[in-house]
Please model this.
Amino acid sequence: MGMEGEGIGMIRVIQPGLFTTIQDLGRVGYQKYGVVVGGAMDLFACRVTNLLVGNEPTAAVLEATLLGPTLQFDKDLLIALGGADLSPTLDGEPLPLWRPIYVRAGSILRFGKSRFGCRLYLAVAGGFDLPYILDSYSTYVRGKFGGLSGRALQSGDELPVKIDETHQWMWRDRWAATNGRSFVVGERSIHRRIFPHYQRNPVIRFIRGRQYDWFDQKSKQRLIESGYRVSPQSDRMGYRLEGEALSLEKPREMLSEAVTFGTIQVPKDGQPIVLMADRQTTGGYPKIAQVIYVDLPVLAQVKPGETVRFAEVSKEEAEELYLNQETALRILQRLPAIRS
Amino acid sequence: MASFPYHISSLNEYTVIVELGDEIDELVHRRLKELATLLEKSPFPSLLEVVMSFTSLTVYYDPIVLRRLFPKLKSPTQKVIAFLEQALAQLDQEPNVQTKRVEIPVCYGGKWGEDLTKVAEYHCLTEEEVIEIHSGVEYLVYMVGFAPGFPYLGGMPEQIATPRRTTPRLSIPAGSVGIAGSQTGIYPLTTPGGWQIIGRTPLHLFNPDRQPPSLLQAGDRIRFVPITEEAFWEWKERELG
Model:
């Protein structure tokens, strides 16, 4: 008999991976105090993995970077993986992305080489049971707060999980029919139509930035015609791009003002920087462009060394694309929890 | 119509920026503060947060909330711009904002402010004179940004403006008070930096476990108050307790 309610589970960190942190949708409402928004780099994958296990969209998830962690589950749990394909296996058997997966107590999740993308998300039904700081679970490593002790995971860490046991009996029945495998994969998934156009070396769409007109004609052309390589110095704060330098028509100083996720700013050396999840709240460099919202997950999955190209769209088109994707996602979030 | 010039434009799908000027100016600042206060007190539907900077106010909102409220709405951005124009029209020519005054105790010089001697020498002043000038005026917090709790302060006398250090320090303790060019500021977190450090405050400018997490907000006026090393430790204990 399954018991209705909640228990506490534990995910043991055997290997932490390259850089694995707890993230969620970020901190809203504290930018006026200079608090970075943070949150998942790929917000689409963060939201969809939560959706697949029946969580609220605000639940915390794990964000792994390039080299995934090795994790052991101490209880039966319902999980979902999404974002980068880091060749996940459970007790040696390959696991799919973008599906609910019932994993058995004692099983070990491992990752291999990156077949696609940079950042993998792991959501667990019930969510991680960690301190909620400034309305968010997300880890802000530079500020040393949020997530698990304000830092990336380390070997030996234990991640507490609020287990949602409501539907466990159903999964146990399905598992009983598998002859003792370590997991059961659910059929539910999300329609590909609302997916970001994830791809290697992608084309990223932008709208004009606040200081677009400050740049000379050549630079405006370069932005759309020449590709930019994502530097190895890129991180959650920003993607440093390498390519043809962008320059202002004449030297100008500007005062610091607000920047957002996807703002492309150009320091004096002419090499653009795309501001990502852990960006500062304000910036003082001219902003040539702004990556459109629906393409941010695509950019978040670009690995250092890949090349991105940029294409301009109108503000109206960007808004329309945002409204379409966001409406679809929120409808899914309002549906009864998907657990089958 | 507002009684002063303004410009509103969209930054992205869920952010709009209201500009009231293009250079650092107290009147512009007070108008921005008044607008921010008005929006926070009576937010329009969908408003998430507002952030002040030197000459503009950035407004974050949730377009889907507007879509639900106004199903025929084509562009949530245009709706937000209309809300903001209404808010601007309510502002008076002469902004009327309440100002919070905050005193920042600072232990100047010695191991707390290793560059005080250099700053004094640079201006042919005594250390005491630098302290007197730095603590003798009121500063305005124009904005908080760059790092959690970091105030951009206006009002430092040009007499003590000093260029940054040629070699930045790898680690400057939280609470350090420094000068960089004609700016003065306080480091909220321990970070590397090139400012000339002249003292340290025992106050925590940023504490994520406190509500609000930042000691200072845009619009506050502050004064630095020189304290002894003994007083520094007393303050420090009180901050921890």
